[in-house]
Amino acid sequence: MAAAEGGAPGGRRGRFVREYLRDLDPEAAARRAGYAPARAAATARRLLRDPALGAAIRAAWGARAGVSAEAVVRELALIAFADLAEFVDWDGAGVRVRDSRALDAARRRAIVEVRQGPQGVQLKLASKQAALEALGRHLGLHDTPPPETTLVIANPRAEPDA
Asked: Which Pfam families does this chain map to (predicted)?
């Protein structure tokens, strides 16, 4: 039985994933999946700590929402590497926003706000920095923790060293 539970989610583990996604109640999901009611809370905690089961839950949640890790990475890359020249033209005479019909759907998704103001049209793009940071974390570029810093505050009431 232990070997069956260690592989890809099938049987009760697969049922637990499906039941957990119904209401995000791990204890109730464990009971509905067929685990002993008296041990449902402990079983649910154990199952949720299992990395393979966690990955299965995330994948099922993404599939339910129509989202995949690849789609998220593509969207972040689109924002991170958006070129301002795709959205506006500028020269000595001023700045002109390009016609939205000239932009493909992927480029338009990088735009978070368009507003007509007293100075003309204002165009706001999604944050390149936030997208680059998220991509960097995903690619493992930011796994190194920052060096530890120790802050020493002198106690003004302490006796000076003799």
From this structure: Terminase_2
Calpha distance 81→43 (Å, rounded): 44
The structure's pTM equals 0.54
CATH of 2-65, picked from 1.10.10.1400, 1.10.1160.10, 3.30.43.10, 1.20.58.1000, is 1.10.10.1400
Q: Are 12 and 33 in contact (CB under 8 A)?
A: yes
β-partners of residue 111 are 125
As a whole number of angstroms, the distance between CA 45 and CA 40 comes to 9
Query: Is the CB of residue 67 less than 8 Å from the CB of residue 77?
Result: no
- Ordered DSSP codes for 82-127: --GGGTEEEETTEEEEPPGGGS-HHHHTTEEEEEEETTEEEEEE--
Q: How far apart are CA 20 and CA 33, in angstroms?
A: 9
Domain parsing of the chain, residue ranges: 2-65, 69-138
